[in-house]
Design brief:
The protein is of the alpha/beta class. It contains 25 helices and 21 strands. The strands form four sheets. An eight-stranded mixed beta barrel has the order 13-14-16-17-18-19-20-21, surrounded by four helices. A five-stranded antiparallel beta sheet has the order 2-1-5-4-3. A five-stranded mixed beta sheet has the order 7-8-6-11-12, sandwiched between helices. Strand 11, helix 12 and strand 12 form a beta-alpha-beta unit. Helix 10 crosses helix 11. The radius of gyration is 40 Å and the shape is elongated. The relative contact order is 0.06. Bound molecules: ligand C2E and calcium ion (2 copies). The site of one calcium ion has 4 residues, from loops.
């Protein structure tokens, strides 16, 4: 205690000595200014010290560093105020001491009561770091009696990991008595909890009357927690808790720098949910959010703990693979991810799927910076999306050219309709029991002048996004209905007429006047309306369910039939099936191909049962092998389509097959297809039909 008295007394004496020249106020302002300047410099020192403490000695990346420093600036501002407060507190102490020195005659009791008012813990150390004295506030802050640690080393109170840093500061303070050095340490309170305390060291060893190091300590645990929370919020997505774009970019930069040094391979995967908007529209934003959170969990499950999963906004996610080899190679992770995303989740009473497109970019020696890697992954995503749903693409430099290509294709597509560059193919749909052709699906092709026959998967999405699908779709419908008229002409009276199935895209489905157009077309062709089947996908229907149902009902009122295409690949399998006025359920080829797996037959069986429940005919797509045909037949599927029966064919080929079927019976067309239908055979068939009709 006598040392503390010495400290304050020494100041008091100094103050009054200087004050005698300049007058009290003048002196105070002058030294106050000097002190503030000194404090500002000290504050900067504290920025550096606390800044490096905040990062815990680890490199946290430029941005985290910046946010950290910004926060520390705030903190230091507060600290400066605190120190200034402390200083002014000290000054008022001095004044008080001065005023009362005479009457109290340096009474220890008086000082003790003044010090007790301090909100910080003041600790007096000897030159070895032994505690000589602590103010009573130690009891309020740490729960100890001031005497508890008297005679103990300061370090005993600190977290083992912080001791050497504290000792270093202690040495610095002793080496530069003119400086206030500060740091943050974990200090154990009497309950055994670790508090984060900010401590300012000041050596007064050189002052003969003091001969000690003075520490000013305050509890900043709550403030640190708040800082940590602020950093978290600035760098994380509030919905999923994943890293946000800012943090991802930082991590990518860091990973790339590290990879260059350690010869590792960094890969960035962008994951974008297909048609997520439809989920929001159909089930509400609450369900959409729930699905996003669920997807984020599955993404985290698919990667290693050291990898970063981020949400870039909306339905776009990113996965940074820090060391993309073996188990963590992008294609391995992607297939694991696809498996995980394939499983439906129950959200707000609906079974939802989350099909996603994946764009991958791997950093190599030529990849410049994080921005470039992100851009490359974006290009890969663009290409993946262009391939259709649930596709994956890995960036390679040619992709830039591919992207340019697609843009060229899009502009060429606009003129292709008026130039008559499209052609139709018709793929037979068969009765699985008898193999009779019951109808055909109309599939469009683009006869490109330089590229040859372009597949619809390459230009339908383009036509959709550019609006060309409207004139193109109109042409397809006209062609298909005209072909239907020709096909039905090959049939015998009394024979059940074959049908034509036409794919409708989302844009067409929503086009005002579409229902009227179909009505006119069917009427003018004179075909029975039920022999025209319109194929829709779930995605189209889920965009705006109530409107979709209304449009479907208007179509049904014309007498045409409706089929749901690619069943099982969309978001919701069950929820809305009941509400849609459908006739046919087309089971996606992925189910058919899965028949060979263990759970495949079960899956198909439940889809078929679903069809039964809603009184829908079922048609399996993509049948390529006799075993698939046999299994589907055994499981009770009615119709089928696939290369096993026939590829998409030219109109005259189908016409011939139908006439052979009419003449020779259900599966005779198969032989004819294998042998090739010769014009003679065709003519013979016609003659026979005519004779039969006459006879
Ligand atoms: P989709 O409606 O699912 O048509 C079936 C696709 O499966 C066709 O591809 C067909 O050739 C193919 N396929 C048939 N049997 C098998 C098989 O056994 N195995 C396999 N792996 N595939 C088989 P295509 O003709 O390339 O058409 C692709 C997609 O393009 C169609 O898928 C459809 O969504 C779209 N599309 C085709 N024509 C039109 C059209 O006129 N309008 C619209 N909006 N979309 C069309
Ligand atoms: Ca189709
Ligand atoms: Ca299909």
């Amino acid at each position: 205690m006598s040392t503390l008295v010495g400290v304050i007394a020494a100041r008091a004496v100094k103050g009054s000595a200087a004050g005698s020249d300049n007058g009290r106020m003048g002196h105070r302002t002058a030294t106050g200014h000097a002190r503030r300047t000194a404090l500002a410099i000290l504050g900067l020192a504290a920025v550096v010290v606390s800044g490096s403490m905040l990062s815990g000695g680890e490199y946290v990346g430029p941005l985290v560093g910046m946010v950290g420093i910004a926060l520390v600036l705030v903190v230091v501002g507060r600290q400066l105020i605190a120190i200034l407060e402390g200083e002014s507190h000290a000054r008022s102490l001095e004044a008080e001491v001065q005023a009362r020195t005479a009457e109290l005659q340096k009474s220890e009791v008086r000082f003790r009561s003044l010090v007790q008012a301090s909100s910080d813990v003041i600790t007096i150390l000897d030159e070895d770091g032994m505690i000589l004295f602590q103010t009573p506030s130690v009891e309020r802050i740490l729960g100890y009696e001031p005497v508890d640690f008297q005679g103990h080393a300061l370090w005993e109170l600190l977290h083992a990991d912080d001791v050497s840093a504290a000792q270093e500061l202690f040495r610095q303070a002793i080496a530069s008595p003119e400086l206030l050095v500060s740091g943050e340490f974990r200090v154990r309170n009497s309950a055994g909890e670790w508090l984060v305390c900010e401590t300012v060291f000041r050596s007064m060893l050189h002052e003969p009357s003091v001969g000690a190091v003075v520490l000013n300590t305050r509890d900043v645990t709550e403030r640190k927690a708040l800082e940590a929370q602020l950093i978290r919020e600035a760098l994380h997505d509030p919905l999923t808790g994943l890293a946000n774009r800012v943090l991802l970019r930082d991590r990518v930069a860091l990973a790339m720098a590290r990879a260059r040094r350690d010869q590792r391979r960094v890969a960035l995967m962008l994951v974008d949910l297909d048609d997520f908007k439809a989920v929001n529209d159909a089930f509400g934003h609450g369900a959409g959010d729930e699905l996003l959170v669920n997807v984020s969990r599955r993404l985290v499950q698919a990667v290693r703990p050291g990898d970063t999963v981020a949400r870039l906004g909306g339905d776009e996610f990113a996965v940074l693979l820090d060391d993309a080899r073996g188990d963590a190679a992008p294609d391995v992770v992607a297939s694991r991810l696809r498996e995980l995303l394939k499983m439906p989740v129950l959200i707000a009473g609906h079974e939802l799927f989350a099909p996603a497109s994946i764009g991958v970019a791997v950093a190599d020696g030529s990849t410049g910076d994080a921005e470039e890697l992100l851009r490359n992954a974006d290009v890969a995503m663009y290409i993946a999306k262009g391939k259709g749903k649930s596709q994956m693409a890995t960036f390679h430099p040619d992709m830039h050219a591919e992207m340019r290509d697609r843009l060229t294709l899009a502009s060429e597509l606009r003129f292709a309709v008026s130039r008559g560059e499209f052609a139709m193919r018709y793929q037979p749909l068969v009765d699985l029991k008898t193999q009779r052709i019951i109808g055909v699906e109309a599939l469009v092709r683009w006869r490109h002048r330089t590229r040859g026959l372009v597949a619809p998967s390459e230009f339908i999405p383009l036509a959709e996004s550019t609006g060309t699908i409207i004139p193109l779709g109109r042409w397809v419908m006209e062609e298909a209905v005209a072909a239907l008229v020709e096909f039905q002409r090959q049939q015998l009276p009394g024979e059940r007429p074959v049908s034509v199935t036409i794919n409708l895209s989302g844009r067409q489905f929503q086009e005002p006047g579409m229902v009227d157009e179909i009505a006119t077309l069917v009427h003018d062709a004179g075909v029975e309306p039920w022999t025209v089947v319109l194929e829709l996908t779930e995605t189209i229907l889920m965009d705006d369910i109530d409107n979709a149902i209304e449009t479907m009902q208007a179509m049904k009122a014309l007498g045409v039939r409706l089929a749901l295409d690619d069943f099982g690949t969309g978001y919701s399998s069950l929820s809305y099936l009941r509400r849609f006025p459908l006739d046919i359920l087309k089971i996606d080829k992925s189910f058919v191909h899965a028949l060979a797996t263990q759970e495949g037959p079960g899956l198909v069986r439940s889809v078929l049962r679903l069809g039964d429940t809603f009184r829908l005919a079922t048609l399996a797509e993509g049948i390529e092998m006799p075993e698939q045909h046999a299994m589907l037949k055994a499981l009770g599927c009615t119709y089928g389509q696939g290369f096993l029966f026939a590829h998409p064919l030219k109109q005259y080929e189908v016409r011939n097959l139908i006439s052979v079927q009419a003449r020779e019976g259900s599966d005779a067309w198969k032989r004819a297809l294998a042998e090739g239908v010769t014009p003679e055979r065709q003519r013979a068939a016609r003659r026979e039909i005519a004779a039969r009709l006459l006879g």
